[in-house]
Amino acid sequence: MANDNNDIQRVWDLMKKIGFAMLVTRDGDKLRARPMSAYLDRDQNAILFLTDARRHKDEEIAREPHVNLSFADAGSQKYVSITGTAAISNDRERIRQLFSTPAKAWWDSAEDPNIRLLKISPDDAEFWDSPGSVISYVKMAAAAATGTRPDLGDNRKVAM
Questions:
Q1: In this structure, are residues 40 and 76 in contact, taking their beta carbons and an 8 Å threshold?
Q2: 116: buried, middle or exposed (CB in 10 Å: 19+, 13-18, 0-12)?
Q3: How far is CA 89 from CA 83, 104, 124, 154, in A?
Q4: What are phi and psi of 107, to 5 degrees?
């Protein structure tokens, strides 16, 4: 697994560009995924989300804190998968700092007592960063015609 600072920065840049992630938790022997709006805190090596204490994901995380985040921008063929450890807190100051337009779709104000802060501490990441759909399709067609493998951009595993 790579530890190149440029690759780590690229992971953070891709997550910022994409903005939304599918949060995957374990519910017994099943995996559950749901879309979440991500707030990045590179200085703290954390990916943050606002969550609702009334939802099952909080209970699932309490039982099993190892999670996956999947960021995807299919239109530009850019993807990031994060493996990490989740923790839920009631940090009201940080909740108020992060409360923004996406959160207003779910809660009336930052003072809603059901809002919780979900912090993911990433352990490792894998990213796929290609030049985009049209170029990728052209490269795949050329590779199919010539019997070679297409160069579809960069794919790396990164320790975070």
A1: no
A2: buried
A3: 20, 20, 22, 36
A4: -135, 150
Label residue 143 by pLDDT band (50, 70, 90): very low
Q: Which residues contact 11 (CB under 8 A, 6 or more apart)?
A: 80, 82, 125, 127, 158, 160
Encode pLDDT of 101-139 as tens digits. Answer: 889 999 999 999 999 999 999 999 999 987 755 444 444
Q: Which alpha helices (H) appear in 55-155, and where do they start and end?
A: 56-63, 92-98, 101-104, 133-146
* Model pTM score: 0.83
Instruction: List the domain range (segments joined by +) for residue 71.
Output: 5-159
For residues 155 and 42, give the distance between their C-alpha atoms in angstroms, rounded to a whole number: 21
How many structural domains comprise the chain?
Answer: 1
Read off φ and ψ for residue 7, nearest 5 degrees: -70, -40
Q: What tokens appear for 22 in the block? A: 């599918």
- Token code pair at residue 114: 């059901």
Question: What is the domain-level CATH number for residue 51?
Answer: 2.30.110.10
